[in-house]
Protein 1
Amino acid sequence: MKIATYNVNGVNGRLPVLLRWLGEAQPDIVCLQELKAPDDRFPEGAIRDLGYDTIWHGQKSWNGVAILSRVGEIHETRRGLPGEPEDTHSRYIEAAVNGILIGGLYLPNGNPRPGPKFDYKLRWFERLIAHAAELLATGLPVMLAGDFNVMPTDLDVYKPERWLDDALFAPEVRAAYFRLLDQGWTDALRTMHPGETIYTFWDYFRNAYARNAGLRIDHLLLSPPLAERLEAAGVDSNVRGWEKTSDHAPVWIELADSSTRKRRKAKTEAS
């Protein structure tokens, strides 16, 4: 099963790019971020024509998240993180799809730092950490996927010395990300590409994509039952080079039907 996350940076304005990528890559499940569209403007029909069921949590001009599936019904379990009832930003949607509980998220950018936006980012991260702990405690196969707006390490950012004052690279934000991982989550892309320079975002300015001056800010985190099924992970970086494309590229993983550890053990015992 192939699962992807993609910050589309405007689902209607980038719809031809999204549909082209869906048709070529054919992911089974997709989490989208930055829809930048109210609920009544989500292009459900065009996506359904490619064989995908959808749920979405939109917002006019900003934010917005969605989950797409071509491998079974989407059973929504939550929209919005608990912990701050007055928060109206459309940044989190959660659903059970084909035996997996998926939380699709768009974590706040947080700039400028310091300031109210950065404080909101830290609060949102704390709410995510608290909810993620509850998800892990269920023992179910769970995934958190989306634009986390954090570069965890120096390896995840081109020229890190230029980002020291940015909210995406702030020590508090990076520490929060690793507290999240320390609960027991697996960073799928980094696990499959340890030590490799691999990015998911390239700014529109300063010819960043052509220079490969990027950031790794889009992540897929797996609970232990899913981590055992991880077979591959990658970035469709070529999509960033398409005309009128998002500044992000799709990030994907492939999961085996059963634990790779169990299958390796069975293979060893058979031989």
Protein 2
Amino acid sequence: MPSDEELIKEIHQGSQAAMEVLVRRHYKMIFAYLYRRTADYHISLDLTQETLIRMMKSLSIYKEQGKFAHWLLTLAVNICRDYYRSRQYKESLTTPLQNSMPFEPYSNVEDLLNQQEVRIHIQSALQELSDSQREAIVLKYYHEMKVSEIAQTTSSQESAVKSRLFQGIAKLKRILGRMVADEENQG
């Protein structure tokens, strides 16, 4: 299987097949990042497409410094930031949030319900964090990036990333604790 850099060289030589392989290879990662940031399936699809289109247009300026996946995540981070500054996002704040992520097949209905409940709690708690805290946590825990890689991807200082992670995790613990307590009081 060719590396990302080998595929990029083929793309520069005009290979459409290499572009398709590169897109397929990174599609799920980009979509997962954007879904965790937006908590909206359809918006995540749109932003993923936008990220991949920007990748195709920007390959000529890509410098082979570090992992290609990190460069691609940097594009996704910036597109997500642009979305949150956009008119479309500001208008969506007046409509109810819908979680339309399709269910994964499970052999047991109870497993499905438990998994969906946990996913909803975590997603809801993540949405209560500041954008910078949510961004750092998603990159660290869902994309397994190091602090230095997150700093590079988000154009931040490492100390700022560490602070966002520390404060974000503390806030997540409080939020999730509150959610559990609320459920116990209702149940």
